[in-house]
Each structure stands twice: as C-alpha cells, then as structure tokens.
Amino acid sequence: MSGTLRESEAQPESVRAVSLSPVVRSSCPICGVPLRGRQRACSGKCRAALSRQRRGDDLALVEESLTRALTRVRALRGASKDCA
Asked: Has this prediction a pTM greater than 0.70?
C-alpha cells in the first residue's frame, strides 16, 4: 500500500475545500447579530427569513420576465392584425 495515505498521514488541507466566496459577512443580514465562521444567518428564524427574501427576489425576476414576454406577444399580435 505504498500509494495510499493512512488516516494519520492525511494532508490537513484536504479536509475542507477552500471557500471561493468573495463576500465575507460579519453580521446577520436580518438582525445584525455577529456571525461565526461560515454562518450566513444567526438562527433558524433568520435563515428562514433569508430564504423567503431570496424566494421573493426570484419570483420578482420571473414576474418581470413574464411581463416583458407578454408585452412582446401583445405587440406581435397587434402588428399581425395591422398586416391582415
């Protein structure tokens, strides 16, 4: 077994992948409580609030996209009536 590492010989840097996230939060974005380590929210309540906020933002983007598409469809329908 010359090609494998024993548990005691494992490389310490291989334990956890390096985070490539450029944003480092020092406080909870919902309530402002200081965060530790890799936390994104300080509690379950704040984590749920962040999830609802992200979902609302995502829905707003979808709604905006659908509104633009509907406007284009209406414009095309109006243009086709003019040609007939």
From this structure: no
